[in-house]
Amino acid sequence: MPKPMGNKSNFERPNDFKSAMKKLVHYLNKFHTLLIIAFSLAAISSILSIVAPNKLSSMTDIITEGLAPNLTEETINSIIEDEDISNEDKKEFLTYIKTIDENTSSNDILKKLDTMPQDIQEYIKPKIDFTAIKKIAIVLGIMYIISAIFSFFQHFFMATVSNNFGKELRNKIINKINKLPLKFFDNNSTGDILSRITNDVDTVTQTLSQSIGSLVGAITLVIGSVIMMFYTNFIMAISAILASLIGFSLMTIILKNSQKYFIARQEELGNMNGHIEEIYSGHNVVKVYNGKKSADKKFDELNERVFNSVKKSQFLSGLMQPIMMFIGNLSYVTVCIVGALLAMNGYITFGVIVAFIVYIRLFTNPLSQIAQAMTSLQSAAAASERIFEFLEEKAMSDEKDITKELNKDEVKGNVEFKNVKFGYNPDRIIIKDFSAKVKPGQKIAIVGPTGAGKTTMVNLLMKFYEINSGDILIDGISIKELKRENVHELFTMVLQDTWLFNGTVKENIVYNQDNLSEKRVKEVCEIVGVDHFIKSLPQSYDTIIEDNDTISSGQKQLITIARGMLSHTPFLILDEATSNVDTRTEELVQKAMDKLMEGRTSFIIAHRLSTIKNADLILVMKDGNIIEQGNHDELMKKKGFYESMYSSQFEKVS
Amino acid sequence: MLKLLKKLKGKDIVLIFISFIFIIVQVWLDLRLPDYMSKITQLVQSEGNAMSSILIAGGKMLLCALGSLISAVIVGFITAYIAALFSKKLRKDIFEKVENFSLGEVKKFSTSSLITRTTNDVTQIEMFLAMGLQLLIKSPITALWAITKILNKSWQWSAVVGGGVLLLLSTLTFLMLVVIPRFKIVQKLLDKINGIARENLTGIRVVRAFNAEKYQEEKFNETNNKLTKTQLFNQRTFGIMQPVMYLIMYFSTLAIYFIGSYIINGALMSEKVIIFGDMVVFSSYGMQVIMSFLMLAMIFIMYPRAAISADRINEVLDEKFSIVDGEITNTDKNKEGTVEFKNVSFKYPDADEYILENINFVANKGETVAFIGSTGSGKSTLVNLIPRFYDVTDGQILVDGINVKEYKLEYLYNKIGYIPQKAVIFSGTVSENVAYGENGKKKINQETIKKAIEVAQGKEFIEKMPNQYDAYLAQRGTNISGGQKQRISIARAIARNPEIYIFDDSFSALDYKTDYILRKELKKYTKDATTFIVAQRIGTIMNADKIIVLDKGKCVGMGTHKELLKKCSVYKEIALSQLSEEELENA
User: Mean per-residue pLDDT for B395-409?
Assistant: First the structure.
């Protein structure tokens, strides 16, 4: 594993939750208006759902008012006075009324009353106030609908904000990738950067769209329901909150403890991922070396650890819901008992209890939502920190002030290295003191053992890295005074790495170069000798090259060579460009390239000494210095390092 | 998905059954809660009831709630255990299967896809099990039970709840029909985004050298826009769900109360309070029914993702091995070290064209056989047939006089020291890397490790490293150079002390001088071993006892360097492309 960025760990554990959140808010500035709208919508929608139960409770009150029979003195008097009621009926009713005493059960009374004659019932039967109920129902219905509409638009806006923010972050990262010095990529793995583009951005956007909206709604609900509870009844409010507090302290303890298992789980999964990747990518070696047993052993160990952490974290996170249910029920009972006590003593109406039953739900549900939102906010904070950390990495120096420019059609082709000193790390100098002069049209070969610094020279020439001291001049102008883009324009580069992207063969060859005719593309492919192969592909030049293709590395290299040959630049760099091609094909390519190189200054790095024999100047590098230079014949005569390297390929192994 | 679930064995099923019982207990207790609620409601309503009876009812209700909590905790524990255990088993199964894959199968799936299948896809299934299993059992039971509780209470109220459920289900169906196909698109677009970014990263030098940053960014932008658009559509559409869900619940309650007020008004006086109690209970059971249908629907939303993962896992588990293990575990000592190719032809399973055709040769103990030929001539494929990375299409390969197909693979591998073109380095110390694996003999000791490294010309650089032989090598050996990796990889084969060495173009990252010294030392050290060398450089192979020249899968020449120079035109061409006539003469 290459060093991770900065000194932070790879795991999603924000160093400072607050500062990460602050940064997130800062990066979101473009979306502030939409966010505020969404938040207000969430809040209003929540407020509406608090007011609604109050309305529902007045509806219940109206219904309960219509439960008990009308046995007031007033009613009895009006029954006696009513002349339409027969005397027999009156008598039956009055006799029964008189028999009622404290010991008669209410149920018996009601049953008896039900058997009373119709005209008497007209008086005593309770009536529900339907106009009031209808009014409440309509108001409630409208409130629900408005609340739903607001809630929808809240989601709508949050989705808009979060997805556009995600898009922006991804674009920013890709943009940043192309602005960072190459040095950065030496220390950070591709997988890590990719995971920032996909996983981390995803985590942030999902939290934004799902959690933040509900968090605002939930907080409003909690505050609102507390206010409403106190407004409705002080004593019941306090008892309800006390009851839920017990539950929440329990939940907080669980939350705190489960966090470490979640982190452990991510870590263990990461470790296992590493092992799996290692074994799968070294599949052949594992097989032939009978490494299966040791691979299995390590896998089992890691798998067991994952199992343990998954078991614990999954269990603990599953606890949240049942506990919340219990808290809800506990609060419910508390509210009912306290409510009943108060109601019996006549302090409150039954409607208040019903309202409280709803409030208690409104109060407990959002609290668990807040708990959940906080957990996901925590991982979002960790993810956003990783993103911002990347975005805030030091980019390559700004080149706005550079005004000098070399026109690639007018460059003569002089290159001069002047006491170049360079190290990828300042404390480990690789190129110690390199000086050389190259004349236009010359063919320069750089040879030497692995690790001598050959490729580094090219990296410096291309301005991929900045030299520590000394200078490189092109036509007498220091590359420090030229824009990177301008330098790149002057060079054609073909590397050992055969980099092809997902696209058609033609797109891969033409790559970012305008005005190239199809004819020219084919011509070059013929010269390189890859035309026949391309034509044998299912869609010829329009065949799409994919990751897992059967194109051999040799053929890939020929395609990259064709790509390089298409561009007309004063300089040419071939860094082990033909190492994957067999020597006969190489010879063909070499001839074609020689033709192309006429008049151009070219730099060639190669292991195969045959490739470089006809170079005008051979620079023999060892440990960052040029130890010999000259052409092939001169160097052979010298009987030095070059000569021993060259002849070693013919020595007989005995 | 079902197919995967069949992997659950005896103990797991017992556990699932236990959790099933506890879920029933939990549902039973949960559904008693509204009963107590209504009882409490009635008690509160009717005058003359002592406070004590309310307390008793409240106490019972709390007991129920506590019981439900305890069962939920037990169920939660069991499901977490089962989900974790199941994913553990699944990962192990996939891992073992992949280990036994041959090269062809690995290539078919691609390494990166196999990795995600072993990790991500298993996690998907695990999540589905942990959440889904409970919901899947619980919600239908709750729904049914709640329905029986409120059945026959009032058809009007039932109609309200039924209508609510219907509305809920149709909204969900609609959403799923619209969104799920787009989920798949999102997944693909994410892959593509990943691909373009990876491309930019891996080819960063080329991108910069061609000043193609804008080009790459535009390509990325295009996909990014598509992704954002699709995701935005999905999330906006899903934004409908929550408000609609709440609307249904609120309106059902409202409707139950509204209708209830009419029913109460029309009822006998003695029944009014009872009906009122029923109403409160009904609205709460009604919500339970709607909620459990919602839960059930959630499973169906979660299911497609898990099902895709399950399919991907099954593809791996169902893949038939193209290489079948043999049984032979001993050989004739006299024939040890011989390798014979008899009329060997090979083509990839689905391909039309042969990669190798009619190859015949014998390598005797202690001999070095080298293969040379142009790109795509089949030389790497040829040596890959010996350790059975692929099986021959026609013909036979005999090792120690026995067809390789008849060997128990482990035994065959003990004879072979294979060094791939791309060196494989495992995370661990230098010693661990060199002593990697088993060779059917004693464990490789430190002395052998040191000697192997010395022969492989690694002594100098390793002894310069901090901790020397215990120096830590990163995965893929990112902290050492290509040539160093290759030398460690060669040392690994040497330490194994095999009968047969296979160098599959394993000297390419070495400079000529190291290449030369290494081969010289190796020859000294491994006098008795049979060696196969695939190479591009003439220098590497010119001293071999037998050189086989391949061209488009056919053997076009066999013999020593000198012989071939005279009689094989292809060989001569290759040689001349690397060395001058004069140099060849002198060699």
Answer: 82
Q: What b/e sequence results for B305-327 when a residue is b if at least 16 CB atoms lie within 10 Å of its CB, and e otherwise?
A: bbbbbbebbeebbeeeeebeebe
Judge whether B274 lies within some domain. yes
What are A37-54's pLDDT values in tens digits? 888 888 888 888 777 766
Chain A residue nearest residue B238, CA to CA: A155
In chain A, ranges of CATH 3.40.50.300 domains: 415-648
Measure the CA–CA gap between B379 and B436, rounded to whole angstroms.
27
Which chain A residue shows the shortest CA-CA distance from B208? A488
Fold of A17-64+130-391: ABC transporter transmembrane region fold (1.20.1560)
Neighbouring residues of A33: CB distance < 8 A, sequence distance ≥ 6: none
Q: For residue A646, what are the CA distances in angstroms to A448, B263, B507, B577? A: 11, 106, 16, 15
Print burial letters for B367-403: b (CB count within 10 Å at least 16), e (below 16): bbbbbbbbbbbbbbbbbbbbbbbbbbbebebbbbebe
- Interchain pair B482, A450: CB under 8 A: yes
Residues facing A471 on adjacent strands: A418
User: Do B139 and B73 lie in a common domain?
Assistant: yes
Q: Chain B: nearest CA to A86, how far in angstroms?
A: 22
CATH number for B232: 1.20.1560.10
pLDDT digits (tens, 9 = 90+) for A121-170: 777 777 777 888 888 888 888 888 888 898 888 888 888 988 999 899 88
Same domain? B47 vs B83? yes
Q: How far apart are the first and last CA of chain A?
A: 41
In a domain, B137, yes or no: yes
Range of the domain at B31: 2-318
Q: Does CATH place domain A415-648 in 3.30.420.10?
A: no
How many contacts does A have with B, using Cβ atoms within 8 A? 475
Chain B contact for A644, CB < 8 A? yes
Residue B517 domain-assigned (yes or no): no
Interaxial angle between packed helices B10-45 and B133-150, expressed in degrees from 0 to 180 and rounded to the nearest 10: 40
Identity of the residue numbered A279: I
Torsion angles phi and psi, residue A622, rounded to 5: -150, 130
Nearest CA-CA partner of A320 in A400, A262, A394: A262
pLDDT band at B225 (very low <50, low <70, confident <90, very high): very high
| Residue A2's pLDDT band (cuts 50, 70, 90) | very low
Cα–Cα distances (Å) from A92 to A87, A98, B270, in that order, read 9, 10, 18
> How far is Cα A353 from Cα A330, in angstroms, rounded to an integer?
15
Query: Does residue B254 lie in a domain region?
Result: yes
- Measured N-to-C along each axis, helices B512-525 and B482-496 cross at an angle, to the nearest 10 degrees, of 10
Contact between residue B267 and residue A195 where contact means Cβ atoms under 8 Å apart = no
One-character DSSP codes across B477-528: GTTS-HHHHHHHHHHHHHHH--SEEEEESTTTTS-HHHHHHHHHHHHHHTTT
| Number of domains forming the structure of chain B | 2
Nearest C-alpha neighbor of A358 from the set B29, B248, B284? B284
Asked if A299 has any chain B CB less than 8 Å from its own CB, the reply is: yes
Number of alpha helices (DSSP H) and beta strands (DSSP E) in chain B: 23, 12
Does the ipTM exceed 0.85?
no
Q: Is A406 helix (H, G, I), strand (E, B) or coil?
A: coil
